[in-house]
Structure formats: structure tokens, C-alpha cells
Design goal:
single chain; 341 residues; alpha/beta; 14-stranded mixed beta sheet; 7 helices; 17 strands
């Protein structure tokens, strides 16, 4: 009997009364639905050092390309065309927002993963469930074997079609193998953040020491309108990772340091630049970017780039990142940064 009536995605969107169920495929791979939209995959045979990889999508419901990629991966695993050698936790996080074709229903799910007191919302209940699933999945797993790829799409166009954000962590979470996976997947740029956050990937890196990143895979589009051809290299690298296949392919990847963040502190908040300004557009130091109440927001560094500008975020939330190119090297197998002059 198949695990899904239709597919992982379609069954998740039905939102029928949930009951856990599992199936063992002819190749010995076990697939288990543990929550609505949460699937574990256990290989039949795995090495002692095999990875436990969280691959998440639909933290924002209108970011459809990652959902399509994940749904296809699950279908191929169930059809035994992909035979995993790593342990997987696969997530379609927010079915209600998917159905509504919106980023969220009440509040931004990707701003709720800190331990701060939060207003009780539907998104907060999802966060509690996701935290619990991740904690159980990684229980007893050595830190270096924990990976998390949180897949998103950008709201606006970008000078880099794909890019990743490596969140702040006190653990060594920028190991060479992980960074090389990103380059194999043709991730064009990597942003290194040193500021505590409240995102899903930050939760994984800071609380569990996982090799984690938020991956921006193209621009928001409706189902069926994503240019998945532009993401084919990433998908191939992801399949190779899941099947524990070695790859020597590399793609040049630009590295940026997150210099600062802009937060919205008042209702009277706006950016002066065009609403369709691409991510990574640069400004001169001192050039006015917008205003927050009576305060004029200036570019604090020369040639700084603006990423994720969104004047409509809730109060006290991040409205943009300011980034600058950086020079990196490996020290003790860990990526470290020297800011470019």
C-alpha cells in the first residue's frame, strides 16, 4: 500500500485528520509520516558517520519552487529512483499559507524560532511542532552529522539568482564540506551573518550546532511558473548529497559579510528606492535609503548592498540587511572571513 494517496504535497494540503503511518520499500528504505507535512526517511544501510539532514520548505507558503523540488524528491524516493544513504527529515511547513497563496496567515513563521515570548498564533503552534520534530530527529546524533537546508525564494529579483545565508552560531557551523556542497549546487553567493536571529536555520545552527543555511532559490512565483531549469544544478547536488555520492564539481561563489541590519521601529517607515530594486543593489556611504519615523536611514558603509528590503514587516522586525563583499579562507576546516578593503 503506498504511503500517499496522491503525493507528499497533495496529501499535506488535504489537511485531513492526521495519523502517523510508515512504509518500508522493497529496497529497505523506511518512510514515516510523523506529522502533517513532516516525513522521515531512514536508509536501509548507512555508514556510522551518515548525516541526519533536515530539508525544509514552505516556511513561507508562497515560495513554491522549494516545495516542488521537495515533493519531487519524495516521489522519486518512494518510486525507488533515489536510494538515500543519509537520514532525512523532510518538511512542508505551512500548508495553510500554501493554500492561501500567502507568506503567512497571522505572522512571519521565520521570525519565531528564538526563545523570546511570542503572541500565541497559528504560526507559533507550527514552530513548536517543528522544534519538537527537529529535536527528536537529532537526538543522540553527533553534532558534525547534523545538517539543515531551509529552502526559500526571494520576494524580489536578485543580482544573484541563488544565494545562501549562513546564520550566527557559537558552534563550528561553516565546515568545508558544507560550504563545498553549496558551491556544487551552484549557489552564487553566501552571506555570513554574525547577528543572533530567530530563523529556522539559526535555530538549528545555534541550538544544535548543525551545518545550516537559509537557501534563496530564485524568486517567488506560483506553482507551475517556476523556472526549475535554473535550479537543476542545485537539485543534482542535493540528490548526490542524499545518496552520499562524491562530486568534484565546483562553482565560484561570492562571499558577503552581513555588516548590519535595519529594523522597523515605527509605523512611519519607508525606503526611498524603487519597490522592484534587486537584492544586492549597492549605494554609496551616507546615501539616504529611507526613513523610520523622524530618523533618516543612511547607508553606513561604502558600496554596501541591500538585501531583503521590506518596509512592510511588523514593528521591531528586520526590514533589510546591509552586506559587503568579503575574502574568506579555511582555518581548521572552518570558513573564516577577512573583510575586503
Amino acid at each position: 500500500m503506498p504511503l500517499f494517496q496522491s503525493s507528499f504535497l497533495q496529501d499535506t494540503l488535504l489537511q485531513a485528520p492526521f495519523s502517523p503511518r510508515s512504509i518500508t520499500l522493497d529496497n529497505g528504505v523506511k518512510m514515516s509520516l510523523v506529522q502533517c507535512g513532516v516525513l522521515t526517511v531512514s536508509p536501509a544501510n548507512h555508514a556510522e558517520n551518515s548525516k541526519h539532514i533536515v530539508i525544509s520548505s514552505a516556511i513561507h507558503g508562497n515560495e513554491t519552487a522549494p516545495i516542488e523540488i521537495l515533493d519531487d524528491l519524495v516521489s522519486q524516493i518512494e518510486a525507488q529512483r533515489i536510494v538515500p544513504k543519509q537520514h532525512l527529515l523532510l518538511i512542508i511547513a505551512h500548508p495553510q499559507a500554501i493554500l492561501a497563496k500567502k507568506r503567512f496567515i497571522e505572522t512571519n513563521l521565520n521570525r519565531l524560532f528564538s526563545d523570546a515570548n511570542q503572541v500565541d498564533t497559528h504560526e507559533l503552534s507550527l514552530v513548536r511542532m517543528l522544534k519538537s520534530c527537529v529535536s527528536q530527529f537529532w537526538e543522540g546524533v553527533p553534532m558534525q552529522q547534523r545538517w539543515h537546508l531551509d529552502m526559500h525564494c526571494s520576494i524580489r529579483a536578485s543580482k544573484h539568482y541563488t544565494f545562501a545565508i549562513s546564520p550566527q552560531s557559537s558552534h563550528p557551523t561553516r565546515q568545508k564540506e558544507f560550504i563545498e556542497f553549496l558551491s556544487q549546487g551552484h549557489i552564487e553567493a553566501l552571506l555570513l551573518s554574525e547577528e543572533p536571529s530567530s530563523t529556522f536555520s539559526w535555530f538549528s545552527s545555534s541550538q544544535f550546532g548543525a551545518q545550516a543555511a537559509t537557501l534563496e532559490l530564485g524568486q517567488v512565483a506560483e506553482f507551475g511558473h517556476n523556472d526549475l531549469g535554473k535550479l537543476s544544478q542545485f537539485k543534482q547536488a542535493l540528490i548526490a548529497l542524499i545518496m552520499a555520492k562524491q562530486s568534484s564539481r565546483r562553482h565560484s561563489m561570492i562571499t558577503y559579510q552581513v555588516a548590519s541590519s535595519i529594523y522597523r521601529n515605527s509605523q512611519d517607515f519607508e525606503f526611498y528606492f524603487a519597490q522592484d530594486l534587486p537584492n544586492f543593489s549597492t549605494f554609496h556611504q551616507g546615501e539616504p535609503l529611507g526613513k523610520d519615523g523622524q530618523h533618516i536611514i543612511d547607508m553606513p558603509i561604502e558600496g554596501g548592498g541591500v538585501v531583503f528590503p521590506n518596509p512592510n514587516v511588523e514593528l521591531s522586525q528586520r526590514a533589510a540587511l546591509i552586506v559587503q563583499p568579503s575574502i574568506t579562507h579555511y582555518s581548521n576546516n572552518q570558513l573564516t572571513v577577512k573583510v575586503a578593503s
